[in-house]
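[recover] target loaded
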C-alpha cells in the first residue's frame, strides 16, 4: 500500500511538473494603424503610433488595451451623411513575432443613424477577434479581440472623441524549460519507473 501511495504521489508530481513547463505569461509590444474606405467626412481615426508594451497575467490575458481613437464632428446644417464604410485596423506586433503576418485586420462599419444635425454612428467589427500564432520569443498563440464602438454622437456641436480598446486572451506559450526543470522532470520520471517495477515485483511474489 505504501508503494502504491508513493507511486501515486510521483505520478502526480510528474504531471504537475510537466504542466508547470507550459507558460501563459506573454510579453507584447504593439502599435496600430487604420484606414476608413472612402474617407467619409466628420469621422477621423487617430492610431496608437507609439508602442504599447507589457505582458499578460498568469491566466494569459491582458485586457483594456488602447488601440487609438475616433473623432466625430457635427455635419453642417442640412447635411446628410450615410456611413457604410469599411474600416481596416492593423495591430502591428513587434513582440511577440507573429508567424506569417504581423497585423490584425478587422472590418468596421459605421452608420449615421439620424441623418442630419447631431450625429450618431455605430462602429461594428466583423470579425471582432482573431487567433495569432507566433514563434518568438517562444512558440505559442493568443486571441486578440476588439470592442465595438456604439452610439458615437456629437450633439453638442464640438468634436467628440471615442477611444477604441481590445483584449489579449488565451495566451499559450510553449516555453523552453530551464535545465533545472528538465532535471527535475527526469528525476520524477525515473522515480516513477522504479516505483512501477517495485509494484510489479511484489505482485509477482
Amino acid at each position: 500500500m505504501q508503494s502504491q501511495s508513493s507511486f501515486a504521489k510521483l505520478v502526480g508530481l510528474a504531471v504537475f511538473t510537466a504542466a508547470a513547463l507550459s507558460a501563459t505569461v506573454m510579453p507584447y509590444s504593439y502599435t496600430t494603424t487604420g484606414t476608413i474606405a472612402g474617407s467619409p467626412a466628420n469621422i477621423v481615426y487617430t492610431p496608437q503610433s507609439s508602442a504599447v508594451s507589457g505582458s499578460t497575467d498568469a491566466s494569459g490575458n491582458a485586457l483594456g488595451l488602447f488601440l487609438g481613437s475616433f473623432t466625430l464632428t457635427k455635419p453642417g446644417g442640412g447635411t446628410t451623411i450615410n456611413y457604410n464604410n469599411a474600416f481596416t485596423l492593423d495591430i502591428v506586433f513587434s513582440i511577440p513575432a507573429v508567424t506569417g503576418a504581423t497585423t490584425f485586420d478587422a472590418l468596421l462599419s459605421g452608420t449615421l443613424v439620424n441623418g442630419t444635425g447631431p450625429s450618431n454612428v455605430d462602429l461594428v467589427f466583423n470579425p471582432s477577434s482573431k487567433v495569432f500564432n507566433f514563434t518568438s520569443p517562444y512558440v505559442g498563440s493568443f486571441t486578440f479581440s476588439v470592442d465595438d464602438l456604439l452610439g458615437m454622437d456629437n450633439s453638442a456641436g464640438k468634436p467628440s472623441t471615442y477611444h477604441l480598446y481590445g483584449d489579449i486572451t488565451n495566451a499559450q506559450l510553449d516555453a523552453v524549460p530551464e535545465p533545472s526543470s528538465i532535471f527535475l522532470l527526469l528525476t520524477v520520471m525515473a522515480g516513477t519507473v522504479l516505483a512501477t517495477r517495485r509494484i510489479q515485483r511484489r505482485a509477482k511474489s
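[recover] notes: Residues 23-176 form one domain.
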